[in-house]
Amino acid sequence: MIEEMEDQVSAILQEEKEEMALRKAEMEAVKAENMIEHRDEIFSRPKKTWFVTGKEKKMLAKAAKASKETDKTAEVISAKQAEDLKMKEKRKREREIHLPRKKRRRLEAAREMLEDETENSKESNKKGKKERSGIPLVDVAYRRAKL
């Protein structure tokens, strides 16, 4: 009985494959018709662009602003340089994850203090006061990591 139905099942499977091929061909034909019919509209659309995340935009803006402040003739960093900076920062953060909690908190506090100092120095520069020299973040990180 099963052997007798085997021929019928294989015939049904073959029909389903043919129907699937027909549906696919019909879909492609409709797509081609739409492409021809709406060609002008399709090609008038702007090309797709890759969007930058909010963090990347901020990082690029900060880097551009910093480069303008330090040297008026400096160029804006390239996309590759920005990507390298991003990867370095990411690696730094990944290394910090493995630090003990106390060291990690100390490092975060030092980073915040450094950011506050840079903001204060920018404000004081606008007022005409002298800029205080601070310890670079890299030095702080190395000192804290060695503790």
Structure annotation, total helices: 6
User: What's the total number of strands?
Assistant: 0
The parts where pLDDT drops under 50 for at least 5 residues are: none
Q: How large a portion of the residues is in β-strands, by DSSP E?
A: under 5%
Overall SS class: mainly alpha
Q: SSE string, helix = H, strand = E? A: HHHHHH
Shape: elongated
Rounded Rg = 31 Å
**Helical fraction:** over 70%
Oligomer: single chain
Largest sheet, strands/sense/barrel: none
Walk me through the topology.
Blueprint: H1 2-37, H2 39-44, H3 54-70, H4 79-97, H5 101-127, H6 137-146
Helix pairs in contact: 5-6
Describe this structure in words.
The chain is an all-alpha fold and 147 residues long. Helix content is 78%, strand content 0%. Helix 5 (101-127) packs antiparallel against helix 6. The longest helix has 36 residues, at 2-37. The protein is elongated. The protein starts with a helix and ends with a helix.
Task: Give me some keywords for this one.
147 residues; mainly alpha; 78% helix; elongated
Brief synopsis:
The protein is an all-alpha fold. The chain has helices spanning 2-37, 39-44, 54-70, 79-97, 101-127, 137-146.
